[in-house]
Design brief:
This protein is an all-beta fold. About 0% of the residues lie in helices and about 45% in strands. The strands form 4 sheets. Strands 1, 4, 5, 7, 10 and 12 form a 6-stranded mixed sheet that branches. A 6-stranded antiparallel sheet has the order 3-2-6-11-8-9, with no helix packed on it. The protein has a 6-stranded antiparallel sheet with strand order 14-22-21-20-16-17, with no helix packed on it.
Length: about 300
Amino acid sequence: MAWLCNVEAEPAELVRSNATWRFFRGTREASTPDPTAWRAVTFADNAWPNGGAPFSYGEPDIANGTRLDGMQNSFSTIYLRHRFVLPAEREIASLELVAVCDDGFIAWLNGREIARYNAPSDAPRYDSLAGANAVEPVGFVNFIVPTPEQVLAAGTNVLAVQVFNVSLGSSDLVFDAALLATLRTPGPPTIVGIAPLPGVVTELGQVTVTFSEPVTGVQAGHFLANDVPAVSVTGSGATYTFTIVPRLTGPCRCAGARSTRSRTWPTRRIDSIWRRPVRTGPMNCWIPRGLRSCSANHRPI
């Protein structure tokens, strides 16, 4: 059995579907002499018109959004940019792009690629073509961004997308997307694991504590057994082991401190209690009050 502490989080639409984008028809490169400059946050897109998603042509069932009349047999790509602001105090737990596209696209966040679908195999140009026809009917597809902390920034961010048609004469094109995040609720790291596990133990000489994320400033004296500090601590990152001398063989009350918002231990006590049911024999190790997730038949004291 392990202590399980839920990390509070909330969903957020950083970019919603049907959003308004700056867009550029791909009759030439969107930026010169550097054809990749248009993907950067600092790129000046003031001259690009605004348009609401979805972007389409040849789709009579789509009544809203921006109609790209004149695209067929004229140009094969469009360029899109959408700015959004991420408050500095918010942390991202997960991030995904959800997109519907006919035929292909590449997406960048602050200049770094985060997703591609039916994209050309070589470096994208204004006249590039999608790598394949989209399978119809098209629907929204999820693209997980594995390391959101490496592509998002506090403050202004830009989601940039280049959309590709499979041919100049293609009968249709569709694109819309949303950027969805799970935001961590501000608060300190929590204890998510402890060893030995609550249950029957014969003696207690070491306790290993695992936090929900790396912490710093952990000292032996931060862990108390029968109100006596541990004599040493080893570990780093999110896991630390406290050594207790002498080894305890009787009733034992252990306490620690929960880490702070600055990820520095300690500030607030979090208690666990080990007890022997009788004067002699194995020591019984119980879980603390308030624990709600337990995979074994334990009870709080």
